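User: quick one - fold this with zinc ion bound?
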Amino acid sequence: MAFLDHVLESPSYGWKDASGALITPTNKQLLSEFFSRLNIFKNKKNWLSFFSWMKVAALLPFFVLFICYHFSWPFFIAGFLYSMVLMGTHGTIWHHRYCTHQAYTFRNNFWRFITRNLSLKIIPEEIYVISHHVHHAKSDQPGDPYNATGGFLYCFLADVNHQPISRALDETDYDRVVRLMEHTGVKSNSYKRYVKWGSIACPLQSIMHWLLNWGFWYTTFYFIGGHGLACALFGGAFFWAVGVRTFNYEGHAKGDKEKQKDGTDFNREDNSINQLWPGYVAGEWHNNHHLFPSSARSGFLPYQLDLAWCYIRTLKSIGAVTSYKDSKKQFLERHHEPFMAQKNKIDENSLV
Ligand SMILES: [Zn+2]
Ligand SMILES: [Zn+2]
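Assistant: Sure. Structure tokens for the protein plus zinc ion:
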């Protein structure tokens, strides 16, 4: 069996039926799988998913404190921009373009560390990275961990139900998984510890990193704008952490192939679409991205603002990033220019 076919922990309802078609679980099945896989008392190997959602839940009290005791419109707007733009763009810069696609390289570990910790730590790298490789290999096919044709909840709960790595990897496959994560700087468990914990990440180190990261940012925000600002930004992060889980469903057009538009969505191999909101706030021009996954830039057309690319370019200009891949030229040559030439020809003919 190919590596990407079994690298993720299969859900109890399975990926596909005997005929190879996607199994679409009911909402009840999805929720039952979700809570079963969060239960650390049933199986301590569930710790990483539990830890990830615990962090999300831990952000909610900050929002409540902000609303009840510190509310102000300027801080509310700051929370909105921090969560949607900064955290959204950071996800693209770090988890997506660097950790998964290795679209650029850092000069040294210092800049990697700065970039990793540029915003509140919430999503564990391994949950994102390994499953995202599978997503690209099987987009909108059975086995895609956030297959949009499986429905909203299938994607929304994917980080627990479909994205964690398998707990049954042999040593050779575990080594391959570790190699996919090597450049991220996340310290990997030995095979023996993986067998014990079911994860690449080490629990103690993950908890320490989380505490230091949140402690650093709360203190920084406090010195800038007191508890009011800190609670507004941490509270805003709660909405980002929940909202970001809807992207995989929306970014693949809710499973609807008809949503792809001529002149906008050039890749027709899957259901991905370019959308203005994820594009503007996070540089996620998802149809472009599926055309050129390893490009450090996804906003190819003049209106496609790509803040993640702006960050990578800025780091390159100060020498913190040593190289990047940029597929804009190929995109224009192979897709956009032929499309425009064809369009102009049709327009000219219609004038005659
Ligand atoms: Zn996709
Ligand atoms: Zn990708």
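One thing worth noting: Residues 3-351 form one domain.
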